[in-house]
Structure formats: C-alpha cells, structure tokens
Amino acid sequence: MTGRFISFEGIDGAGKSTHIQAVADWFRARGADVQLSREPGGTPLAEALRDLVLREAMGSLTEVLLMFAGRRDHVETVIKPALAAGKTLLCDRFTDASFAYQGGGRGLPLAVLDTLADWVQEGTEPELTLWFDLPAEQAAARRASAREADRIEQLDLDFFERVRAAYAARAAQAPGRIVRIDASGTVAEVGAAVLNVLQARYPAC
C-alpha cells in the first residue's frame, strides 16, 4: 500500500470535523490525491448501520458489533482500495473511537475490542491520528449550539469524560501514531496546531 491513512479522533464537539477539510486542502495544495471518509459510515452499508447505531436503542455489545461490521465493509471497499491507489485517505474516526466510546464509555472489555480489531482490520491502521482533546463540559456546550443530539450525544458528562480518558490511554500506548491537539482554543488556534503537526510529519510535501 502506497497511500497515506490519517484519522481524526475526539469526543463529539471537539471540532475534528471542522478541521478535516483544511487538512484535505493542505495535502491537495501539495499535489496529493485526497479522499475523505468517516466512521461510523463511509459505505452505503456502513451508513445504514450508522443510522441504526445513532437512533435505535440497543445493548453495548450489539452497538460495538454493528460498528465493527460497518468498519469491515469500509476497510474492504474504501480504505484498502484508496491506499492501493496511492491516495491520501482522511477518515473522521476509526478504531480508536470504538476503544474510547465502547471501551472507555460503555465499559466493554478491551480484549474483546482487540480481537474485533484484529479480525476486521487485518493490519490496516492509520499512520497518523490527530486526537482533538477537549473537556467534556466544553464539548457539550459546543454540541448544544450546533445541532440536535443523537442517541450517543445525549449521554451524560461522566460518559464523555470516560471516553476522553480512554483516548488519553490510547495516545499513551501509541505515541508515535496519535498526536494530541489541544482543541480548547479558537478555530484558528487549533488549525495552527494541526498545521504544525503536518509540517513536522510531512516536510517533503
């Protein structure tokens, strides 16, 4: 695989979706063939599963199984072909989100998530993950002013603090891949921090 795979992570309201387009523009200005995708979602099947997960009541294990089912389809039909074609794939969330939300937030055993990740990804992993870190209370205020909450976004602050802590644990385990971005500042300040990471990681671009 000759392409680049970069994921964007963070709790709902942290601003990752705001900055993914700017990153796409940065790579395109340097000649990269950029493709955007997201999880849950990214394929027709995965988008249908996303709608179920975000709107229908279900147990935690059912939730994570649907997430990984969509991820498998996404890996097979979008991610691997994009990388094989030499594209720069920017993905709004990937497997770190399952470890954060279903592992940290829901309390599912990490061993279960590790097994699912091994089966579903078969070694496919981002080379860089930008983690937009923001306190749960601040993220909730941003969400409230931006959109109507889905089933997961309606959960309490304690849930999102557990999610945030799980992201921190993932970052500690993979410091070469996961880069923390302080998302508490203005859009311009956060964008500048992202740009610094890109310039340091991809100086030849």
Automatic annotation (TrEMBL):
Binding site for ATP: G10, I11, D12, G13, A14, G15, K16, S17
Keyword ATP-binding (UniProt): yes
Keyword Nucleotide-binding: yes
Residue intervals of the Thymidylate kinase-like domain: 8-191
Protein name: Thymidylate kinase
Species of origin: Pelomonas nitida
Keywords (A to Z) from UniProt: ATP-binding, Kinase, Nucleotide biosynthesis, Nucleotide-binding, Transferase
Native organism taxonomy: Bacteria, Pseudomonadati, Pseudomonadota, Betaproteobacteria, Burkholderiales
Family stated for the protein in its record: Belongs to the thymidylate kinase family.
